[in-house]
Amino acid sequence: MKNCILYLIHSNPQDIKDFKKSLTLIKRNYLNDHPCDVVCLHEPNFPKNEIKEIQLIKEDIIFSEITFDMPDYPAETLSQIPEFYCGFSIGYRHMCRLFAGDLFNKEIVKNYKYIWRLDCDSFILTPIKYNLFDRMASTESIYGYIAIEVDHPDVEKGLWEISEKHFRKIGKDKIFKEKQQHFCRVFYSNFEVLDVKWFQSAEYQEYYSLIDESAGIYKYRWGDHVIRYLALNSLLEKNKLLLFHDILYRHARTYINGSPVKNTRDSGFKYLTRYEYPDKMRLGKHHDGGYVIADGLEYDLFLSAGISGDISFEHDFLNSHSKIKGYAFDGTIDVSTIEKHKGLTLVQKNISSENTETTENLSNYLSTHKDIFLKMDIEGAEYPWILSSDFTNVKQMAIEFHVWGGAAVPSLWNCLKRIDQTHCIIHIHVNNNQSLLCIDSLYVPEVFEVTFLRKHEFKNGFKIDLSEIPAIIDMPNDPSKEDVKLVGYPYTRMHK
Q1: What is the reported pTM?
Q2: Residue 449 belongs to a domain with what CATH number?
Q3: pLDDT tens per residue, range 325-338
Q4: 430 and 383 Cβ atoms separated by less than 8 Å
Q5: Which of 284, 269, 279, 325 is nearest to 302 (CA)?
Q6: Is residue 32 part of a domain?
Q7: In whole angstroms, what is the distance from residue 239 CA to residue 252 CA?
Q8: Crossing angle of helices 159-169/224-235, nearest 10°?
Q9: Residues 192, 134 share a domain
Q10: What does the alpha-carbon distance between residue 20 and residue 42 come to, in Å, rounded to a whole number?
């Protein structure tokens, strides 16, 4: 039997633009070496001129019109379905229903063994050197995925209860006995490979019918990703689920790194490992200008390198540590125009590896204090300073690194390696105003904030932190854009 890559495309210009990019990338990085059908499900009003343009990218693409209708629920049930639930439209919930189970009853999929589902904004950024469908077949896998995420409990309201009752009845309720491990976990279903025959099977369709009849997809936005997660983990052994751990992938603002090859493990990426620290807080104004740091520590000096026109972080820090002095350095502005703080001395000098009339290397401060807090945002000048300074007396430091265009990557690795001798990373946040770079087939942000804590401040040992980036406490630098999410090595786990 044949296999296919399947998209669902809406008629709005942004979706069409993203789809063209996605199709171009999948053709270059997969289809040229591993040809298969590409099926595009689309709404009835899809522009005909766009179909012609898409065919210029892939001539034999298969277009299939699809319509969405509300199931024939009783009037009382229909009255309980809101126009929007947690911000999700009826149209979005139609899509959830399609991929949860209705898709497998469509004529268009019946001649395929496997379907590789992608969203219009799914981007395969580097070549995939093997056939995904062959790997599914050789491992006898039913479902392939790229990551597992966490959903919000509000969009799973009642789902666990109805599912547990069903799977307990058929003796397949193992994951419900391990609820803490699985609760709110979902497959990242904008990249998934599905065995069509299994999803057409009576055992899956019986569960899907139960879900569909309950109208939970429409009442509470039960997503196809969580329905898939509960069914697969209840009905199958783990060896039937295949993690594609070696694909560099982007979906919207989420960037997923695959597992590193050996030479990548030996590169600077290993110095981006985070370590758990239990108490953290965010200081500074909302969005750009704030940093997440370890809470509950005492200092004998505060240093700030690079303030531009914003000293909200400096004010918040010194307000919570009123007994220490602070110095802020910036030679690019007129410091006389900056709002004053009684504990902060403003110095109109730039940070450098040397002390001159216009530059400061901080050596006098670093050598005369033992428990310093350092904040640094100096637009690329951090590299020579880090490589020439002794910061063993810095208890904690928050540094914004700048890797514009990738030329500074070797300097970044050298600096992280040097810092790693005395400090550990406890927090990473990506500046969402900038792009991400692909280095050694992995993502590294062009601009990102990193918080380091001196190693002997860890009183309970070192445990690697694989929690989500961004954290709940983070805020996007640009509030008009969604924050950037990092998944995979070395930042987070790809599955939980």
Answers
A1: 0.82
A2: 3.40.50
A3: 999 999 998 888 88
A4: no
A5: 325
A6: yes
A7: 30
A8: 20
A9: yes
A10: 14
In tens, the pLDDT along 344-381 reads 999 999 999 999 999 999 999 999 999 999 999 999 99
Rounded Cα distance, 155 and 211, in Å: 14
pLDDT at site 496: 42
Measured distance CA(21)–CA(39) in Å, rounded: 16
Domain at 209, CATH number: 3.90.550.10
Tokens of 39: 């099926």
Sign of the CA dihedral 27, 28, 31, 32? positive
Look at the chain and count its residues. Answer: 496
- The answer to whether residue 228 is domain-embedded is yes
Whole-number mean pLDDT of the chain? 94
pLDDT digits (tens, 9 = 90+) for 9-37: 999 999 999 999 999 999 999 999 999 99
Q: Rounded distance, CA 141 to CA 465, Å?
A: 30
Buried b (16+ CB within 10 A) or exposed e, 387-413: eebebebbbbbbbbbbbeeeebbebbb
Strand partners, 401: 448
Contact 332, 352 (CB under 8 A): no
What are the helix (H) ranges across 236-362? 262-265, 312-320
Pair 170, 297 in one domain = no
Mean pLDDT of 429-450: 92
The answer to whether residue 493 is domain-embedded is no
Residue 495 lies in a domain: no
**Rounded average pLDDT over 287-313:** 95
Which residue, 202, 232, 252, sits at the end of a domain?
Answer: 252
For residue 120, the enclosing domain spans 2-252
- Rounded Cα distance between 295 and 42, Å, is 51
In whole angstroms, give the CA distance from residue 13 to residue 24. 17
What's the count of helices (H) and strands (E) in the chain, helices before strands? 17, 28
Residues 6 or more apart in contact with residue 315 via CB below 8 angstroms: 339, 341, 344
- Is the pLDDT assigned to residue 176 strictly greater than 60? yes
| Domain count of the fold of the chain | 2
Residues 152 and 235 in one domain: yes
